[in-house]
Amino acid sequence: FMNKVDLVDDEELIELVEMEIRELLSEYDFPGDDIPIVGGSALAALEGRDDEIGKEAILKLMEAVDASIPQPEREID
């Protein structure tokens, strides 16, 4: 989750930061190009303002988590 996007007015700067995050992930042998990065504002979500970068971003983050992390097999007694 790339937080605090509400503090940046320039969309190109947000894209640049995302590219740098992906490069760092790749540098440390993570699949930087394949990992979903969701931009938003946790504070906006908590305060209930600017739904696009607040609530909707958190929902999108949870969708990415559900899609990327497999559900573990659990023993059933």
UniProtKB/TrEMBL annotation:
Keyword flag Nucleus: no
Keywords: Elongation factor, Protein biosynthesis
Name of a matching Pfam family: GTP_EFTU
Keyword Cell cycle attributed: no
Molecular functions (GO terms): GTP binding; GTPase activity; translation elongation factor activity
Domain Tr-type G residues, every copy: 1-70
Domain of life: Bacteria
PANTHER family given in the database record: ELONGATION FACTOR TU, MITOCHONDRIAL, ELONGATION FACTOR TU-RELATED
Protein name (record): Elongation factor Tu
Native organism: Sneathiella litorea
The gene coding this protein: tuf
